[in-house]
Amino acid sequence: MTARAADRARYDRATAHLDAPVAIVDLEAFDANADDLLRRAGGKPIRIASKSVRCRALLERALARDGFAGLMSFTLAESLWLARSGFEDVLLAYPSADRARYAELTADPKLAAAVTVMIDDPAQLDLIDAARDGGREVVRVCLELDTSLKLIGGRVRVGARRSPLHSPAQVADLARAVARRPGFEVVGIMAYEGHVAGVGDAVAGRPLRSRAVRLMQAAARRELAERRAAVVRAVRAVVPGLEFVNGGGTGSVQHTAAEEAVTEIAAGSGLYVPRLFDNYTSFRGRPAALFAQPVVRRPGVGVVTVLGGGYPASGAAGRDRLPVPYLPEGLCYDPQEGAGEVQTPLLGTPADDLLIGDKVWFRHAKAGELCERFDTLHLVEGDAVTATVPTYRGEGHAFL
Length: 400
Prior knowledge:
This protein is of the alpha/beta class. 32% of the residues lie in helices and 24% in strands. Helix 7 links the parallel strand 5 and strand 6. The longest helix is centred in the middle third of the chain and has 32 residues, at 207-238. It starts with a helix and ends in a 10-residue tail after the last strand.
């Protein structure tokens, strides 16, 4: 029996009492992935990206391990909810225009102390001030650096279009603008190199593309390391008490941690290891989060149909955004139908061994987005479900 076949047998036994659709997290794999992230971080603390987990119980489980410290949230509403739930260090990774929540933040000393907001433009400070509604608390601010690699005099850009702040001078100028403004304090710098951390460099069947990605990423790492260090020096000249410099992501943990200027690493997807992280040469994780759909039809030889399963992930539309049939091994989508909203045909020899009611296990393309489809995660240890915990959705929250 292969390791994957053994996992399937465990998951089927563990969830035999549960009807599919059902989502699980294998805690042995989750913990092993956490250990691997810590190993790659080389002693620098890891701030957990909450959007990649979206389950308070599992955020708490990871934070209980030495080496994980703080959360990186994705909306201001989520940030305040997490802070009220007892999480004491929440960095909002994206600028917000949520005036109502800014009014809450600036009126509550506990929230203001726990939550750091992201800016890259003075206009965002204007919005916050206009939203204060009498709130006088000092707002903790993080400045976001654009990490994109610019080539041929800027005519070619590689990387996400995020912050407009690219040079040390631009970031330092914004730091000075914040320092001059009552009610705000610069406490950190963030730079997410998504073109390194979020792009696989070993795409199956694409050797030339994979080599091109590796060459691009090597050049991007060198350029960013030099520029990030210069940015930190420039900002520390304005804000000597800077608390943190955050960088990286699951796919670049060890590279970003090697930079002296970086004080903490961001990561979250590496706890679940969705399918998009199969194409990396720098690390190998264990799939920890899976979902199962039930077989509801047997249309013919080599075909079964499962209920639902059309759970595409965000990003540029493509086949790599679809979940992948994982267990039993050897199933694939019908290219004429793909993953369906209500039913999904699956092709392959293993289909002939599946009966009505059997489970087919899938892996989602991106980590936390799976939790937008399920109210609960069943936590598996060995061949038993030892706990069932709510996702954000199960607690009544859909923050985006």
